[in-house]
Amino acid sequence: MTGAHGGTTARRRPAWISVITKVELGLAATALAVLFLLVLVQAAQRYLPVGGWSWTGELARFCLVWVTFTVAGVLVTTDSHIALQLVDNVKNPKVVRFVRVLASAIVAVIGAGFAAEAWELMSSQGQLKSPSLRMPLTFLYLFPFLGFLSTAVRGAVAAVVFAVRGVPAPVGTTEVQSA
């Protein structure tokens, strides 16, 4: 299994990262399954003689948000996020290491900033409720907050790991690109 930068994603990870990854993937899979079922219900409602339920569309949109942001941190750890691979062709391991550390640090800072904004939304939107479900919007913003927090922590960990251990070698080799 390889990531966007050609490194292996099956390398050893601490147990707590594996547990958090499984929880995040489980939440995302649940939200995706609920999203799928709600879209089927919406499609079926068109052909039934009863009125539609407006909450199904609203919850489906919320599930899409939750799926998207819940797995953001997982993408950082598995190196599966969208990335430019130009640096991977550079032969100097110091340059590759520097760019990967810098990129991971930037991801961590941006994730922390978004987590802070999601926290602000959770704090300030407590009185507001969604139109159909009457769900407090604090709950809507909980999963983006957790996803961005996970992204920030995982980005920081990746930056430290790349700085200390080097960048994983491209597929087909077993050595680490270190300076």
Automatic annotation (TrEMBL):
Sorted alphabetically, the keyword list is: Cell inner membrane, Cell membrane, Membrane, Transmembrane, Transmembrane helix, Transport
What would be one Gene Ontology cellular-component term for the protein?
plasma membrane
**Compartments where found:** Cell inner membrane
**Residue ranges constituting the Tripartite ATP-independent periplasmic transporters DctQ component domain according to the UniProt record:** 35-159
Spans traversing the lipid bilayer: 59-77, 98-119, 139-164
Does the keyword field hold Membrane?
yes
Question: InterPro entries, per this entry?
Answer: DctQ (IPR055348), TRAP_DctQ (IPR007387)
Q: Which domain of life is it from?
A: Bacteria
Kindly give the membrane topology term recorded for this protein.
Answer: Multi-pass membrane protein
GO BP terms, alphabetized: C4-dicarboxylate transport
Gene Ontology molecular function: transmembrane transporter activity
| Pfam families referenced in this protein's UniProt entry, alphabetically | DctQ
Q: State the similarity comment.
A: Belongs to the TRAP transporter small permease family.
Q: Enumerate the PANTHER family for this protein.
A: 2,3-DIKETO-L-GULONATE TRAP TRANSPORTER SMALL PERMEASE PROTEIN YIAM (PTHR35011)
Record protein name field: Tripartite ATP-independent periplasmic transporters DctQ component domain-containing protein
Q: What is the lineage of its organism?
A: Bacteria, Bacillati, Actinomycetota, Actinomycetes, Geodermatophilales
